[in-house]
């Protein structure tokens, strides 16, 4: 079997629900509603990611991967598991207002992330060789990454601790931003790229 990055990413995403259940068992957090909410949000996102990878995959994760590099990916992604560990080990209970905000933020993020990736997938199939610059991509060059930011911000906030946001910041700095910059360099081959870049944000409206 030719191992690719997506094999390690997808397996980790699917393992998140099991890891959360394991932490709930280890800390006897079965009666903690915040732990169950976290399981539903992050565990559900892992299943959605795996389904997306099967139906409209992202080409950048099709790169070949050695086992050591794949395990490095697993290790890096496991930083996100600090949230369920904090929730279960400290028996944290998020206040109702935070539950509402986290759920709304996560839901909005899922829409942006998956709708943007689907739009990109269909554009690449139907209009090969042209620059995608309409729909969700008309004002942002990376609406899918904004979606991911909201997704992780949503369920990470349930831990009520800065550690999950530090983990996200590490991923943003070392994976997300380099990928976005690399994509900009690749898309600069299109004549209309400069005009598109001048009227769009990289990934956060009005900020960056």
Name the descriptors.
208 residues; mainly alpha
Number of helices: 8
How many domains make up the coordinates? 1
The N- and C-terminal alpha carbons lie at a distance of 40 Å
Average residue-wise pLDDT? 96
What percent of residues adopt helix (DSSP H or I)? 55-70%
SSE string: HHHHHHHH
Q: Count every beta strand, where a strand is a DSSP E run of 2 or more residues.
A: 0
Shape: globular
pLDDT under 50 segments (min length 5)?
A: none
- Structural class call reads mainly alpha
| Beta-strand proportion | under 5%
Biggest sheet statistics:
none
Please give the oligomerization state of what you see. single chain
What does this structure look like?
- With 208 residues, the protein is an all-alpha fold.
- The chain has one domain.
- Helix content is 67%, strand content 0%.
- It has eight helices and no strands.
- Helix 1 packs antiparallel against helix 2, helix 1 runs parallel beside helix 4 and helix 2 packs parallel to helix 5.
- The radius of gyration is 18 Å and the shape is globular.
- It starts with a helix and ends in a 10-residue tail after the last helix.
- The mean pLDDT is 96.
